[in-house]
Amino acid sequence: MYSDNNILLGKSEEREIFLESSMANRHGIISGATGTGKTITLKVLAESFSDAGVPVFFSDVKGDLAGTAFPGEAGGSALERVEKMGLNEKGFSFKGYPVNLWDVYGEGGMPLRTTVSEMGPLLLAKDLGLNDVQSDILSVIFRIADDEGQLLLDTKDLKSMLTYAADNLEKYSSEYGNIPKNSVNAIIRSIAALEAEGGNIFFGEPAISISDLIAVDSNGKGKINILDARQLILHPAMYSTFLLYLLSEFFEVLPEVGDMEKPKMVFFFDEAHLLFDGISQALLQKVEQVVKLIRSKGVGIYFVTQDPSDVPDGIMNQLGNKVQHALRAYTPKEIKAVKQAAETYRENPAFDTLETIQSLGTGAAVVSLLDTKGIPQMAEKIKVLPPSSRMGAITDSEREKLINENLLYTKYKDMIDRESAYETLKKKVEQDAEEATEAAAEAAAQKEEAKRTAAEQKAEIAAAVKAERERVKEEERKKREEEKERERKKKEAERTRKAVTREVGKVASQLGRGLLGNLFKR
Questions:
Q1: Using H for helix, E for strand and C for coil, what is the string for 105-140?
Q2: Residue 183 CA to its chain's centroid (Å)
Q3: Which residues pair with 299 in a beta bridge?
Q4: What local confidence, expressed as pLDDT, does residue 521 receive?
Q5: Distance CA 157, CA 152 (A)
Q6: Which helix (H) or strand (E) holds 324?
Q7: DSSP 3-state assignment of 459?
Q8: What pLDDT score was predicted for residue 411?
Q9: Residue 279: its pLDDT value, please?
Q10: Most buried by CB count within 10 Å: which residue of 121, 284, 378, 387?
């Protein structure tokens, strides 16, 4: 209940207990065993923040919180509690609140989506349950996509990017390091498993706009955003990853505002232990950093869980406002946990904190809230106020009306599938295949041309060799003919010489005989 510019949480035997509005962004924890009143405390705080004009976000894991949109029943135990606590004098009334119903699956509320790029590799690795090596590879894939201007909007974009990188290892390995195909295949299998859980519905556009969560209605009341998590809680990794995504998104988007009179936004993380189950050290460090710094952006965070030990120490140290409902201890481990919880409170001499925590009834709590100077006050045993809105589930027709009449429904109801990595890489693969086909055809043509050229060259060489042989043979023939001609001429000359010699001999013989005859005649 919002009263005197602060949040009236409950009453002790002596006084009213307020959560200072200016300290509400110093975070807090609501813890206690099942059935001890955590949900009532959550509703009372959420309603009070809404009355103060502060938007709220919380998840409804059992389907019993959507009744916040409708007035509570002014009768029975609730009315008796109101009268007993003297709330009528404070202006208490049963009323409904402005509610936005959301659902990742788009069934129990307006579709609530984000893109793969906005989720980022660190959170997505948690969602997919990847080991360290696979997480590093996923980060590399995101970097490649960013460097090449590829939009990763939905799961098919991410699978396409992974497949393309694995098929082009030579292109990327020198700059980005080795990308083992077996690891890529393991990541793709994890994505397929996530799609089976509804990841293909959750990842896409239009993605949730932070401004639609940080909103007030026409009367200045903060919008109460309720995530219907009845299905989502069946997939703990996806549930916790989404809530961590929202937290990191607000941290990145919102500007620094410093100290404020009241928060700009308050988150309640129900089933908080799921946020930290199996969380990597790197992600835990990021969450601790966000929790530590986001209060300067006007955001308050309240973890709702059964056991305070569910929240890591590094984060617990940042939770200044504590509401502890009853804890039961039956084993040594449970007793130790209760003792540890009691030791975190400033001791009040009026009662034993440890004993009180174990004996609290439903709707009662031990609280320690920050004063105006940010100092934790002494533990107080209080009765928590009753909520103004309806407790319990709403009918299907009431839920449908709340969804369809919301102005945001038309903005988010239909998924948009614009061109992104899946389409561009598909075109690129087809283009690469076409270019490869053309290149192969050109190579084949060049090979054929080379083969033809080689054949022509071979033929030319053979013809040249043949011609050379013919030339040599012709020269040899001519030489033989010339030799024969020389031989013939030689023989002819010899015959001529011999004939001349004979003729000369004949003439000489005749002359000799004539001379001798003349001599003898004398």
A1: CCCCCEECCECHHHHHHHHHHHHHCCCHHHHHHHHH
A2: 16
A3: 265
A4: 65
A5: 5
A6: strand 321-324
A7: helix
A8: 95
A9: 78
A10: 387
CA distance 471 to 463: 12
User: Residue ranges of the alpha helices (H) in 279-416?
Assistant: 281-293, 313-316, 332-343, 353-359, 396-404, 409-412
pLDDT along the chain (522 residues), means of 10: 84 89 93 90 95 94 91 78 78 90 93 93 90 92 94 94 90 87 93 88 92 93 95 87 89 88 93 82 86 92 91 90 90 86 89 91 91 90 92 92 94 92 90 80 85 86 87 87 85 84 81 71 61
Residue found by looking up tokens 């690795």 in the block? 125
Contact predicate 321/19, CB 8 Å: yes
d(CA 166, CA 183): 10
257 φ, ψ to 5°? -125, -10
Cα separation, 140 vs 167, whole angstroms:
15
Is residue 129 within 8 Å of residue 137, measured between CB atoms? no
Give the containing element (helix H, strand E) for 210. helix 210-213
Is the bond leading into 206 cis (omega within 30 degrees of zero)? yes
Tell me if 65 sits within 8 A of 45, measured CB to CB: no
Look at residues 147, 111, 139, 140 and name the one whose alpha carbon lies nearest to residue 123: 139
Two tokens, residue 516: 């001798």
* Residue 264, φ and ψ in degrees, nearest 5: -85, -25
* Strand 265-270 with 6-11, pairing: unpaired
Which helix (H) or strand (E) is 300 found in, with range?
strand 299-305
Helix or strand run (H / E) with residue 298: none
CA-to-CA dists, residue 512 to 128, 487, 499, 515, angstroms: 141, 36, 19, 5
Length of the chain: 522
Contact 240, 125 (CB under 8 A): no
Q: Give the burial string for 199-212 (b: 16+ CB within 10 Å, else e).
A: bbbbbbbbbbeeeb
Model pTM score: 0.81
CA distance 430 to 494: 93
SS (H, E, C) 21-62: HHHHHHCEEEECCCCCCHHHHHHHHHHHHHHCCCCEEEEECC
